[in-house]
Design a protein that fits this description.
Helix content: over 70%
Low-confidence stretches: 306-310
CATH architecture of the largest domain: Orthogonal Bundle
Strand order of the largest sheet: 1-2
Largest sheet: 2 strands, antiparallel
Distance between the termini: 79 Å
Structural class: mainly alpha
Order of helices and strands: HHHHHHHHHHHHHEEHH
Strand content: under 5%
Mean pLDDT: 80
CATH topology of the largest domain: MetI-like fold
CATH superfamily of the largest domain: MetI-like
């Protein structure tokens, strides 16, 4: 059989096409091993922190269904059911305490505070961002500094305000007082968010015939929804976690909120009703956690857009 020919060569002397050798960088295998080890270490540390954070919640959930004999025996494993679980602790929480009253009071106070906060912070933040000129940022910082004043210094003068409003020993005292710290913080938060919204949106709306108020309602507020939802979430969280004002202004059981009612009604002297305490904590924590996870993307959008200076 005749030898094959190639362009530019002959059958006896074909042209040799050079082939570039594949060069493997020395140490590339070790680099991949180091990257894999670093990633594995990162995941291991993250998993360790996740387990560390989840263990208290797991203990709370297990405690809700433990009997007294299972809970108070030192030899029992706290993360296992050494005796059959029971629903009696939940029955005792709902039947023998005012837990549902505390929940209703908390929801009412949170709803009223959210409405007041949103109605006050949206126009305030917009005015300081768009209309106050170079003084707006300084005024916003001054307003935020009010939030940093400790409640232990303010509850004494606020007692005079509550007394003057005839709201003593009532949840309406909390509705009156809580905006004093939700409005400063949320105004500062919304100011950063409004700075990230371009002027062109409002100008285009006003060119189309809307007034400034119409441009705000139809153009600015829909774009600001992540920031407003962030304000709502933080107002609810701050209201539910507040303890000093609720303890100072409300003493009647029928008017207490969760933060004070659970700790004062379920702890009598030196007796701690641990199963009922943990049941109350779990029933409050689960809805809040679901709410945060449901609107997590909007919260992140509110923070990141608010962090961009327009």
């Amino acid at each position: 059989m005749a030898a094959p020919t190639y362009p530019g060569g002959t059958a006896d002397a074909p042209i040799r096409v050079p082939v570039e050798p594949i060069i493997v960088a020395p140490g590339s295998g070790r680099a991949r091993v180091r990257r894999a080890g670093a990633r594995g270490g990162l995941y291991a540390v993250a998993s360790l922190f996740a387990v560390f954070a989840a263990l208290p919640f797991a203990w709370m959930v297990l405690t809700v269904f433990k009997t007294d004999g299972d809970l108070y025996k030192p030899i029992n494993n706290p993360f296992l059911f050494n005796e059959p679980p029971t629903l009696g602790n939940l029955d005792a929480l709902f039947a023998n305490t005012s837990f549902l009253t505390f929940v209703g009071n908390t929801l009412l106070v949170a709803a009223m505070v959210v409405v007041i906060t949103v109605l006050a912070t949206v126009p305030a933040a917009y005015s300081l961002t768009r209309l106050a000129g170079r003084w707006g940022e300084g005024l916003g910082i001054a307003i935020f500094l009010v939030y940093l004043v400790p409640p232990t210094l303010l509850f004494i003068p606020l007692t005079r305000v509550v007394s003057f409003a005839d709201a003593k020993n009532s949840i309406w005292s909390l509705v009156l007082v809580y905006p004093s710290f939700t409005i400063p913080f949320c105004t500062w938060l919304l100011m950063g968010f409004f700075k990230s919204i371009p002027w062109d949106i409002e100008e285009q709306a006003m060119i189309d015939g809307y007034s400034r108020l119409g441009a705000i309602v139809r153009a600015v507020l829909p774009v600001s929804l992540p920031g407003i939802l962030t304000v709502v979430a933080f107002s609810v969280a701050l209201t539910m976690h507040e303890f000093v004002y609720a303890l100072a202004f409300v003493t009647a059981s029928s008017q207490k909120t969760l933060s004070v009612g659970v700790t004062t009604e379920l702890v009598r002297g030196d007796v701690f009703f641990w199963q009922q305490l943990m049941a109350a904590a779990v029933l409050v924590a689960i809805p809040v956690a679901l709410l945060y996870n449901l609107f997590l993307d909007r919260f992140i959008a509110g923070f990141t857009l608010g962090a961009v200076k327009g």
